[in-house]
Amino acid sequence: MKVLWLFAHPDQRSLSGALKDEGLRALDAQGHQHRVSDLYAMKWNPVVDAADYGHDPAGRLLIGAASERAYTDGHLAPEIRAEQDKLDWADTLIVQFPLWWYGMPAILKGWFDRVFVKGFAFGLTDPATGRPQRYGDGRLTGKRAMVITTAGARAATLGPRGVNGDLNDLLFPLQHGTLWYTGMSVVPPLLIPGADRTTPTAYATAASRLRERLRTLPTTEPLPFRHQNSSDYDDELLLHPDLARLPPPRTGPAVHYTAPPPPVHG
């Protein structure tokens, strides 16, 4: 594998930092290549700005059009181009972050906002059909992605009956709405729970689970998201109602899987 490890935690001495180092050592031992984008260490600017696109600040900033034009013309800010080059090089993306307020840290959201511009990550059409290439199709098709997240909560509370909600639902905007949207196959996430109460024994278990997930990453079955350009959706991109009623009956994000996703273990 050629792995881009996208990391967002402000403290290198944290559990997240230790697991990142553990993961990179495992990739080395397994003979894989890797590059790292450590956003806090890079002092990554998460804020979209007209300067990203060489845009005249006196005019209206239409993000989609401006970003696509800058990407096509080679006028994107150098730090954005550098991250896109890393992603082009990689066949696998690891996204690692602590789960803060039911989502990723703002600095990581800002990486996607600035790097996944129109023309690079989305906005393409199938020349044969004219249909948009997204949700399973697109420029990033063929790449794999995996989310690694630490949480202070216990694993059971991030399950189907947990008070915090099911982790696959919490990660749906990232896993489905960002990674799958751009064409990447997304394997089940790795949850490291109880981050604020880690013991040496718990850390050893987490490190072992991480090494195993990296070892099997190339062959792990991805989450069974539905392809937009399949017969599952009508011309208005609405899921055919009979598919939502398949056993077990599902609502919300779950209807956009062809089968229930595997449970998340901590």
UniProtKB/TrEMBL annotation:
Any Pfam family the entry gives: Flavodoxin_2
Entries under SUPFAM superfamilies matching the protein: Flavoproteins
Positions of region (Disordered): 246-266
DNA-binding among keywords: no
Family to which the UniProt record says this protein belongs: Belongs to the NAD(P)H dehydrogenase (quinone) family.
Gene coding for it: ywrO
InterPro entries referenced in this protein's UniProt entry, alphabetically: Flavodoxin_fold, Flavoprotein-like_sf, NAD(P)H_dehydrogenase_qn
EC number assigned by the record: 1.6.99.-
Keyword check for Oxidoreductase: yes
GO annotations of cellular component type: cytosol
Alphabetized UniProt keyword annotations: Oxidoreductase
Name the UniProt record assigns to this protein: Flavodoxin family protein
Source species: Streptomyces platensis
Lineage, opening ranks: Bacteria, Bacillati, Actinomycetota, Actinomycetes, Kitasatosporales
